[in-house]
């Protein structure tokens, strides 16, 4: 909104010191980070006090974990702080006409609402039990039904996938290396690609010609071409199979959003763990957004250039600032928990950003902690069921899942576990960035 106000001032010829700074994305990113930090730290305390006043406290299962009883009554639904710290700076400083901003705002509100309803129903179940004079024990069935959450995530995945595939403003630029040619021919394009225009960019006194291409491609690490077209997944069908690529693409997008969202939700089990890991992943995605949205860096790194991606930097800045600011109150000992309101949204945002910048195949690398946490639960449940059928009693791989609880059972303090998981995420992020040049 402020972006449009200063744009109007410029059109009207109204100038004053500093009025032109809003034209620069880097300045607006800085403002988004600072404002998100202020919202999450200064106003976060007020929100925590409000949650305490409304008796919106966490109920803790008796799992035999160190320090679990001290967490009783700690306000939950703190994800509202993160959501506000993301939405307000984005609405103020971003160009809201960009399709990528539309998608990220939708993702934030959509998954935030699903998580909020889940937290609300859990709190309602607790208050109902207390009103009846019963001792409340936390159960999985208290919140939204698992399938209801899945349906919500799938619905968002379909909308994001369909928009990215069919919207004419979602394109990539391919540089054309034949200066003698008067026009960019269709033969220049790869299978499954559609040319929707062309343009010329001058860099360091040299003209570069680009074809504006509509294509369902993504980045694949460790290979020379560095690209993967989703149409190849159904090329075995035969001629004309690429007409059905949209089905495969939307299914892939839906699966990724659902998986990463649930991975973040599972990871949110220790003070500061999910927020810290998400902030680091957000910084990684911010680098991806910056280099993929710059013709200079895209040419230097030999990666695809994605136009109109720059505005997404404002959103990413707010995302990182919101997560870091939330850590002010969520670091051990936590004064507030994000709940599903925050964790589902964080995972969905990370997945959607990765898909938009066409780095979704790098998710297993930079989201390594989310992946391992997810796998630990899947392995534990599968092995328990298998051994129960075979031996008559269930056996476990880990002392407890998710993995962070396994380390708690081993006697590690939760703050040490969280910090070490942050360190692992730093290594994963650096490795993911290094894949730009590892071919």
Q: What is the H-and-E element order?
A: HHHHHEEEEEHHHHHHHHH
- Low-pLDDT windows of residues: none
What is the alpha-carbon Rg in Å? 24 Å
Q: What's the story with the biggest beta sheet?
A: 3 strands, antiparallel
Beta-strand portion reads 5-15%
* Envelope shape: globular
Total beta strand runs = 5
Helix proportion of residues, in percent? Answer: 55-70%
**Between the first and last Cα atoms, what is the distance in angstroms?**
42 Å
Q: Whole-number average pLDDT?
A: 87
Structural class: mainly alpha
- Helical region count? 14
Within the largest sheet, what's the order of strands? 1-3-2
Write up this protein.
The protein is mainly alpha-helical and 439 residues long. It is built from 14 helices and five strands. The strands form two sheets. A three-stranded antiparallel sheet has the order 1-3-2, with no helix packed on it. A two-stranded antiparallel ribbon has the order 4-5. Helix 5 (146-166) crosses helix 6 (245-267). It is globular. The model has no long low-confidence stretch (mean pLDDT 87).
